[in-house]
Amino acid sequence: MTIPSMPTKDEFRPIILRVLADGQPRSRQEIYRVVADEAGLSPAARSERIASGGLSYQKRIGWACGDLYRAGLLHRPQRAIYQITDDGRTVAARDLKIYTERDQEEWPKWQAYQAELAARRKKRKDETNEKTTVGTGENPLEQLVENVEQFNTETATELRQILQESSPEFFENAVIDLLWKMGYGGTHGEKQHVGKSHDGGIDGVIRQDALGLQNVYVQAKRYADTNSVGRQAIQQFYGALASRGADRGVFITTSTFTEHAKSEARSYRGKIVLIDGIRLTSLMLNYGVGVQRFREFTLYQVDDDYFESDLG
Fold first, then answer.
1. Which of 40, 139, 161, 297 has the fewest CB atoms within 10 Å around its CB?
2. 67-92: per-residue pLDDT in tens?
């Protein structure tokens, strides 16, 4: 039966779970086709496009898949491949017509995702000394900036999850690439991925000059959220630095550092810098590592100087 209107993202979620309930992994393109068939989308609905040019139904299905993945109802055995989880089957069995973001709050993984978004927003406000705005939509420019920041916050949060799912070697190379992009290699420096064998607590080295007289040593821990970096790991990293006669090191993790770890790092008087998962992915966005520009907007305002001669 052909439905008269395009389903919302909330209406697409239960349809996605229903078509994936057989447990078979499917590519995003296959999901677009099967879900559109299950929803009974007309040819006109399938050809409808959003302002940026993409197909509306594919965008909504893609957004819905992303939300279900972040809630733990789908998982990705490979990039752009989705498969239902046991929790997803639980929801699919309810035979729902609609499943909202608020409904997804029943799942701890979605709660953690929302908590991270809130933590990132708070961190940004604290760093920029922003004040909470009363009311919404009063200033179109402020609303646009807020929407862009929200989009980038969600991207950074997804990026951290992808890094947690990557191989240790890939993650180690990624953080070395980030520090290099940040300029720590200087003009004539070089970077090296040491690797996990015989690393002695060192995963990478950035030589800041051609002779290697100034080196930055890197330790990278691809930890899950339940595994914070503790004091002992910082002590071991400092020992690895001392054994090389090094005076600076960067310890990077996808998770967090315990208060004892932070205190231990401070005791070394700036020789060890700690970067947690939220700061890491924020830096990756700022320096364009692992992300690409998606879209740019041009805003126009009246050029008062142009009209100045007409005022007198």
1. 297
2. 999 999 999 988 889 999 999 999 99
**What secondary structure letter does DSSP report for 220?**
E
CA distances from 289 to 28, 145, 286 (A): 24, 22, 8
Residue 148 gets the label, from left (phi > 0), alpha (psi -120 to 50) or beta, of alpha
Kindly report, residue by residue over 144-155, the tens digit of the pLDDT.
Answer: 888 888 899 999
Q: Residue 38: CB partners within 8 Å, gap ≥ 6? A: 15, 18, 19
**Helix-strand-coil split of the chain, %, nearest 5:** 50, 10, 40
Q: How many Cα atoms sit within 13 Å of 198 on the Cβ side?
A: 0
Rounded to whole angstroms, how far apart are CA atoms 249 and 184? 12
Contact of 184 with 214, CB cutoff 8 Å = no
Taking a C-beta distance cutoff of 8 angstroms, is the pair 236, 272 a contact?
no
Q: H helices then E strands: how many in the chain?
A: 12, 8
Pairwise CA distance, residues 303 & 305, whole Å: 5
Q: How large is the angle between the packed helices 231-243 and 259-266, nearest 10 degrees? A: 30
Name the residue among 110, 91, 93 with its Cα closest to residue 101. Answer: 110
- Map tokens 């078509």 to a residue: 19
CB atoms under 10 Å from CB of 46, counted, come to: 16
Core vs surface per residue 21-35: b (16+ CB within 10 A) or e? eeeeebeeeebbebb
